């Protein structure tokens, strides 16, 4: 009959479970959800990695990273101004090196007039307040695409560290506020700290790529800096095995003892456990790098209409904060900063 099928709201609301604690109560309205929110993303959490290329008033798209472009130095200065006005604290610089300038030893890394050094000077002059972070590694400069010196099939540790030290000093001289060794050689943090201090650059920070994994998620980045076509083999003898977790604690212990001011976990989202482990164990600044492949996945799925790109972007970045990251390197930085500004 009619009464049996007539389900009234009030009947639905009748409590049938005896629950003193109902977590949903705090989620019932926006005002309440805002009050109990544990983490928030702010513009101060963002580091924007940018790609540099030769030329003037020149920008070229990176095919595997829709929305990301390589920028000539003058264009990079313009973007640095925009980033500063948005409140983004820092940029990380990555050069696309003219393939003609690549050689086995990565000599161009030691050229004070190379693309990164010129960009450092130009941006520092125009936008002194923005933090400038440089990658210390040889991969943009070597003909074989590796981060270090290759002897036969081996990446030689100690000789590489010597070269990286000179690269870091050059970056500091050109205006880098922080150098970020991403090469994963043993002992490089201590060697760079010692050399910076001896050069009276105790002010230059070292942001160590502490837990950097041999990852498939770097693919689009290698397109962006022109390494994918030249790289011989893989980087598994120096970057970490994705299967490992305790090993990152050893890397962190060493990096901190050698003088690292901050640590980076890279890639980001597949390694949130490492962000959390490093943060809780050491209680020191931990940054996550949302790498090129993560950016590409979100962007590609959004372009296909398969996910809401905007929401996935914000959710992925908030997840880094929840895991314990103090800041995030992300190619979404300017888009997110604009969005946060609009409120
Ligand atoms: C290499 C370097 C890499 C990235 C930053 N520095 C790639 C690699 O190790 O091959 C990757 C960043 C990204 O994928 O966004 N020194």
From TrEMBL:
GO terms for molecular function: porphobilinogen synthase activity. Pathway: Porphyrin-containing compound metabolism; protoporphyrin-IX biosynthesis; coproporphyrinogen-III from 5-aminolevulinate: step 1/4. The keyword Lyase applies. It is an enzyme of class 4 (lyase). It comes from the Bacteria. CDD domains: ALAD_PBGS_aspartate_rich. InterPro entries: ALAD (IPR001731), ALAD_AS (IPR030656), Aldolase_TIM (IPR013785). It catalyses: 2 5-aminolevulinate = porphobilinogen + 2 H2O + H(+). Transmembrane segments: none annotated. Its EC number is 4.2.1.24. Coiled coil: none annotated. Keywords: Heme biosynthesis, Lyase, Porphyrin biosynthesis. Gene3D superfamilies: Aldolase class I (3.20.20.70). Belongs to the ALAD family. Homooctamer. This is Delta-aminolevulinic acid dehydratase. It comes from Flaviflagellibacter deserti. The gene is hemB.
